[in-house]
Amino acid sequence: MSLNRILAFAIFVLLAFGFLLGSTRVMARTTSYPFEATYNVESTGEPIAGDVLRVRDVGDSNNAPYGLTKVENHNYALFKPKTTNVIKVGPDPATFGLTGESFPFGKITFYGEGSDKLFGTETGTSTYDFEKLVGSGSYTITIAGGEGKFRNAKGILTFSETNVLSPDPTAPIKGTWLVTGSFQTTR
Length: 187
Hints:
It is built from one helix and nine strands; from the N terminus they run αβββββββββ. It is mainly beta and 187 residues long.
């Protein structure tokens, strides 16, 4: 075997070995986080244009993992109470015909007492029964970042909500969110 072939073979083996070691390190730096928690949430909606509301949800949990005991969500909702009891919710103001700097993209944040935070966006629908004063909904949260140990987080959480409505239409809506799913971080 010629010296050139031996050198080429040695370089190939070293590169292949280096690639395998590098791949192992990348895989070892991915951490998965299963998530299940119940949050007691209070929601308020501010009419801003026609049937569009600016929505703010704030909640607390006694059983949230990783110290993420608080949730705050800013979103937009389309609600046509004269034609339907369904509310469509999402983070993108353009979806609801809103433009300009006064309509920032919505965001949901899970956080606690420490520096760890989880960021994402939420979309879904709720249905309200104003005669029985109850509501329910189903949502998807797309995790797209965080702080502390959740930096670079990605994943999907879902939540179902049950709500108790007040006879006063200006009162906050009180609800319970059951949030489940998982997310990953890569370092």
